[in-house]
Design goal:
Number of strands: 14
CATH architecture of the largest domain: 3-Layer(aba) Sandwich
Radius of gyration: 18 Å
CATH topology of the largest domain: Rossmann fold
Shape: globular
Number of domains: 2
Structural class: alpha/beta
Helix content: 25-40%
CATH superfamily of the largest domain: HAD superfamily/HAD-like
Largest sheet: 8 strands, mixed
């Protein structure tokens, strides 16, 4: 079997704390011959936590399927063309959005846009020296997707979306945050690409996620496992709802399906 795990709300909580039973479950699954992949909306530059990576994974699908690593090597990477990136930044700024450009090596944002913002503070703290300014690197970015703070009226937000609808699919996390993913990509596509790489039937896959941005991943996998007690109701997309992250959700699900 090939197992895919979302990070935020699935592998760890909002404080980036990882349940020891989760670590044990993944290591036991690998010892039993199953391959384990991170499958995250985070760009690779935002996946650097040593405790997370030291769990031991066979690969990483990052930035909603736009980059895939296997056995420590990048086997696929799709960057947003510079002309599309410039158009995107100029358009979202015109509508009052505050963009974060997400890439394999750096994240780009303007610090003044996110002063006092909880999510912005988390990004800035986690990224450290991998953070760059959008304007200081103008036209020289390497990016795979975007996120934006969107504290604007819904009508204005949707008008902006329409102007870039040829380039992106949108995942609206709240009335303040939107994720902009290049058309044709999502976490489910990442699972399909990994299965092709491994020569594995997609029926022999499990996906573990906690939120609406895991929808495509849960639907694509042979078995989709939703974490319990989350903000989003995943019962429509998941085949099985396990216990919460804090209550050993991954361990319990993997025991239930006899993966460990």
């Amino acid at each position: 079997m090939v197992l895919f795990f979302d990070i935020d709300g699935t592998l760890w909580n909002y404080k980036n704390e990882i349940n020891e039973k989760t670590i044990e479950a993944i290591r036991t699954a690998r010892a039993n011959g199953h391959k384990c992949f991170i499958n995250t909306g985070r760009a690779r530059a935002f996946v650097t936590n040593e405790k997370l990576l030291s769990i031991g994974f066979d690969g990483i699908v990052s930035a909603c399927g736009t980059m895939i690593e296997y056995n420590g090597e990048v086997v696929y990477s799709r960057l947003i063309p510079t002309e599309d990136a410039i158009r995107s930044i100029e358009t979202v700024r015109e509508y009052g959005f505050k963009p974060i450009l997400e890439g394999p090596n750096h994240l780009y944002l303007e610090l003044e846009d996110f002063q006092g913002d909880m999510y912005g503070d988390k990004v800035i703290k986690e990224m450290g020296d991998k953070l760059r300014g959008i304007d200081e690197c103008w036209g020289k970015w390497e990016i795979q997707k975007m996120s934006c703070a969107t504290e604007v009226p819904i009508e204005k937000r949707d008008e902006c979306f329409d102007k870039l609808s040829d380039l992106y699919e949108y995942m609206i996390h709240s009335d303040k945050v939107v994720e902009m993913v290049p058309k044709g990509f999502n976490k489910g596509v990442g699972i399909k690409e990994v299965c092709e790489l491994l020569g594995e039937d997609i029926k022999n896959t499990f996906a573990f996620g906690d939120s609406i941005n895991d929808k495509e991943m849960l639907l694509a996998a042979g078995v989709g496992v939703g974490m319990g007690d989350t903000y989003h109701d995943l019962s429509e997309f998941a085949d099985y709802i396990t216990t919460s992250l804090e209550n050993d959700g991954i361990w319990n699900a993997m025991k239930h399906f006899e993966l460990i």
